[in-house]
Structure to design on (195 residues):
């Protein structure tokens, strides 16, 4: 979260007509198909300093976590057959790998994204974006997101002046200056007229 707050502070001013946007992937942990998820882990690990044997071990361990996850609900045992358990320690890095693979192979090469996205910051399944383009291009990009990667269900919120992202409210004034406020505390960095 600190890196996001620093980003907002450093941006200071954006184009006046830019839209503040948030995206969310609904039910991400339970939506990731196991085979595709492990493929994404393997793809990202091949860009690391790990040797092939270490990568194979990591992928085998993820496979065990994903395919041998039993849980108890109302005195009945179940085997989870898709996605990963939200409480698992492996869930956040697994979800991050899956979405990073999606971003690298699909989003970052999209023409609308390359033309209009000034900022794209993701925290697991929550995304903050600054879109410098007409509303229609954003809506077209959103349709692309919803259909480009099977199993992912995106939601989108946008506004020219204010959006909520995690515990932060990002505000843009009429001059394009960015400010932030917090949901849970009284700390803020905002213009005097908004205090």
């Amino acid at each position: 979260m600190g890196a996001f707050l620093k980003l907002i502070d450093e941006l200071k001013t954006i184009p006046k007509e830019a839209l503040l946007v948030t995206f969310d992937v609904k039910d991400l942990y339970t939506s990731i198909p196991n085979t595709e998820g492990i493929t994404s882990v393997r793809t990202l690990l091949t860009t690391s300093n790990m040797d092939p044997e270490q990568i194979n071990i990591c992928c085998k361990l993820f496979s065990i976590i994903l395919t041998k996850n039993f849980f108890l609900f109302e005195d009945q045992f179940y085997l989870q057959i898709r996605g990963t358990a939200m409480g698992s320690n492996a869930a956040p890095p697994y979800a991050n790998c899956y979405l990073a693979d999606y971003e690298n192979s699909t989003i970052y090469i999209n023409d609308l994204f390359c033309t209009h996205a000034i900022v794209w910051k993701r925290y697991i399944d929550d995304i903050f974006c600054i879109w410098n383009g007409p509303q229609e291009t954003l809506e077209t990009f959103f349709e692309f997101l919803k259909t480009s990667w099977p199993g992912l269900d995106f939601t989108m919120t946008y506004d020219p002046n204010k959006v909520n992202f995690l515990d932060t409210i990002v505000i843009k004034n009429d001059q394009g200056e960015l400010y932030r406020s917090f949901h849970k505390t009284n700390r803020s960095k905002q213009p005097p007229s908004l205090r």
Observations:
- The radius of gyration is 19 Å.
- Residues 190-195 have pLDDT under 50 and may be disordered.
